[in-house]
Prior knowledge:
This protein is an alpha+beta fold. It has helices spanning 93-109, 111-142, and strands at residues 5-11, 14-21, 23-28, 31-35, 42-46, 49-54, 62-66, 69-74, 77-82, 85-87. 34% of the residues lie in helices and 40% in strands. It is flat and about 65 Å long.
Amino acid sequence: MAMTIHVDIVSAEGAIHAxxxxxxxxxxxxxxxxxxxxxxxxxxxxxxxxxRVDEGQGKEQQHFYVNGGILEVQPHLVTILADTALRASDxxxxxxxxxxxxxxxxxxxxxxxxxxxxxxxxxxxxxAQLRAIERLRxxxxxx
Length: 143
């Protein structure tokens, strides 16, 4: 018998999944992580995406959607806490496509605001670099 890890997926609405698995895959903020039994303890943020639970023994992987959240890993327990978590089979594709289209329209109409924000960030970085150079000059001149 293969080693397993207990997996709990919980949303604000309630528990979505509780069971054992041989592997769990989740969309961590810096990339997908794979969690196996006896994994090193870990806490990380999740980005929106798919969580896959592989129960092993020839069973199909279970697929879930999370809108982000927190992943906590203990050697024998994986807990995923998300504001929204759904079984992939429960996602309304038409509603998702409509939401995607609306979001793209909003982003297209506000492109100038994003460019403005990017310019503000670059200006702040340049000012900080100039201040650092100025401080170094003062230190060298003061010695």
